[in-house]
Design brief:
The complex is a heterodimer of chains A (about 110) and B (about 475). Chain A is α+β, with helices and mostly antiparallel strands and about 110 residues long. Chain A has two helices and six strands; from the N terminus they run βαββββαβ. In chain A, strands 2-5-1-6 form a four-stranded antiparallel beta sheet, with helices on one face. In chain A, strands 3-4 form a two-stranded antiparallel ribbon. Chain A is elongated. The N and C termini of chain A lie close together (about 10 Å). By secondary structure, chain B is an all-alpha fold. Classes of the chains: A alpha+beta (about 110), B mainly alpha (about 475). The interface between A and B is medium-sized, with 10 and 18 residues.
């Protein structure tokens, strides 16, 4: 099992969600987050004063997937979220030891 | 206008009864004459009653409109500009004045501002609203109950200290706020209102003051005093923790937007209501007010667009408020075209004060109470001396009743000097009165919240609640 964490542009959420559903991903957790990488934010003006907003709103998708779905899901996310400009986001993969379904104690990939 | 109409009515009635009576009672009896004059007197009374009802209706609506400027108008305008941890405390600062000043006004403040007294302050003869009933006081407003005048003026006394709160937003203790505002209202507002508008006031233009200052709806009394006091407060209290390094963005320009639009509407009560009657003068003040606000929104936006590349919503609404401030002393004295000019200048000037001057000197006038009200009020009061027109409002007359010129453009250069005197006195009273009050409050209850409380936010530390509690545990 692998945890896929994808940080993407907020405007790309619907497209990424659709792409993941298409390859058979059944569940995900979506968080509204703020942060920045190389894209350094933008400036805002309030009453003539300039403010740099360096933490930009992003969407973070978290999923734990059976290993055979991982590469396909990465392709799906990249395909749907890429614009080719700075700020498209990142995907992180982490190995997961165990998964437990609270309802009935199922463990491992069947709990996903 | 209405007097002429009632005269016309009387003539009509006279000639009608004369024509009717002529053929049959050529030798018209004394009894008949008596009947006719009784009928005329009755009619005149009805006309006076009708006029009084019309004026009173407008003045009660205006009073309500001016109260709406404080809550929710100013509360939303300022509330949106602070960080979200301070939204309730900021709104409370507007709201609590609606309660505190009202009580003080009834007890003795009305008397200090508008009761008979010296050229500088009224006395206590109208304390507890003694003698303030349904009979009009012709010196103030001949056609409305004095009680209406009293409640209308109260709404001004409420919003004026409320404006100052923008300068020390996010860092004053609530106890200090209550003490400061109580003292400020008595020591600064009441004398200034008395001088400009009160019977025997030193600056009163319509009741023969020494330096007749034209201030139709409170450019000096309301905006210069509050704006200058705001600057003094900002300097005395010091900057907010982290200013200007840490960004302190408005938490909701949406709230401020609603507040500004309510202020614009409420301002019609503020300025057009200051005619104290529902006649043509109210219309002229209403029109000037509207054009001033519109031109100033454009003035500020254009300045911002040129300087920063984008016209912001906050800029447009701030400009409108600045224009409303600048036109306040002038409305009721100027024609529509000068109102546009005053608004345009007011909007651009206030933007300059807020964007350039504040940054240059580094004071933390958090919500720009000085930059908008102090600066806009000052420029508006001076421009009133330039553009005031005796056609719009024939306020100066010689001893035989001939109308004299009002402003500089009509050839009354002296008026500009009078305006400087009025503005100067408002500045002096604002600076020294506020310094004294701040010192007293600082030494007794203390002005600023602790650093911890400031970091926590005033909502929690001063009031024990939060403006936005969005976690909803099921």
């Amino acid at each position: 099992m692998t945890k896929v964490e994808a940080i993407i542009q907020t405007s790309k959420l619907e497209a990424v969600k659709d792409a993941l559903h298409e390859i058979g991903v059944e569940g995900m957790t979506v968080l509204e987050v703020r942060g920045h990488g190389r894209q350094k934010g933008h400036t805002e003006f309030y009453r003539g004063r300039e403010y740099t907003v360096d933490l930009i709103p992003k969407i973070k998708i978290e999923m734990v997937l059976p290993d055979d779905l991982v590469e396909k899901s990465v392709q799906a996310i990249v395909g749907a979220a890429r614009t080719g400009k700075i700020g498209d986001g990142k995907i992180f993969l982490t190995h997961v030891d165990e998964a437990i379904r609270i309802r009935n104690d199922e463990r491992g990939e069947t709990a996903l | 206008m209405l007097n002429r109409r009632s005269g016309l009515l009387a003539i009509l009635v006279l000639s009608f009864s004369f024509l009717c009576s002529f053929p049959t009672f050529a030798q018209s009896t004394a009894a008949n004459d008596k009947q006719q004059s009784a009928a005329i007197a009755g009619l005149q009374m009805q006309v006076a009653d009708a006029r009084s009802s019309a004026d009173n209706a407008w003045m009660l609506v205006s009073s309500a409109l001016v109260l709406m400027m404080t809550g929710p108008g100013l509360a939303l305008f300022y509330g949106g500009l602070v960080r979200k941890k301070n939204v309730l405390a900021t709104m409370m600062q507007s709201f609590i004045l609606m309660a505190i000043i009202s009580v003080l006004w009834a007890l003795f403040e009305y008397s200090l501002a508008f009761g008979p007294g010296t050229g500088f302050i009224g006395g206590f003869s109208n304390a507890f609203l003694r003698g303030v009933g349904l009979q009009p006081d012709a010196d103030y407003a001949a056609t409305i109950p004095l009680e209406t005048f009293m409640i209308y003026q109260l709404m001004f006394a409420i919003i004026t200290p409320g404006l100052i709160a923008g300068a020390f937003a996010e860092r004053m203790k609530f106890s200090a706020f209550v003490a400061f505002m109580t003292l400020w209202s008595i020591i600064v507002y009441d004398p200034m209102a008395h001088m400009v508008w009160g019977k025997g006031g030193f600056l009163n233009a319509s009741l023969g003051g020494r330096f007749p200052t034209l201030d139709f709806a409170g450019g000096t009394v309301v905006h210069v005093t509050s704006g200058v006091s705001a600057l003094v407060c900002a300097l005395y209290l010091g900057k907010r923790a982290g200013y200007p390094r840490q960004p302190m963005l408005p938490h909701s320009v949406v709230l401020s937007f609603i507040g500004a639009c309510l202020l614009w509407v409420g301002w019609f009560g503020f300025n057009a209501g200051s005619a104290l009657a529902a006649g043509g003068l109210a219309t002229s003040a209403f029109v000037a007010t509207h054009f001033g606000a519109a031109a100033a929104a454009i003035g500020w936006s254009a300045a911002e667009w040129i300087r920063n590349g984008k016209p912001s919503v906050l800029g447009a609404i701030s400009g409108a408020v600045a224009g409303l401030v600048a036109i306040t002393p002038a409305a009721g004295f100027v024609a529509p075209m000068p109102a546009l000019i005053i608004g345009l200048i007011g909007g651009a000037f206030c933007f300059f004060m807020v964007a350039k001057v504040k940054a240059r000197f580094g004071y933390d006038d958090s919500l720009d109470a000085f930059g908008v009200h102090g600066a806009g009020g000052t420029i508006g009061a001076l421009l009133t001396g330039v553009f005031a027109s005796s056609v719009v409002n024939p306020i100066f007359r010689d001893s035989s009743g001939h109308v004299l010129p009002s402003g500089l453009l009509e050839g009354n250069g002296r008026q500009l000097l009078n305006q400087f005197v009025g503005v100067g006195i408002a500045w002096l009273l604002g600076v020294f009165g506020t310094l004294l009050i701040l010192w007293i409050v600082d030494k007794t209850v203390g002005l600023r919240v602790s650093e911890d409380h400031e970091a926590q936010g005033l909502d929690l530390s001063q009031h024990g609640e939060e403006g936005y509690y969005w976690e909803t545990p099921a």
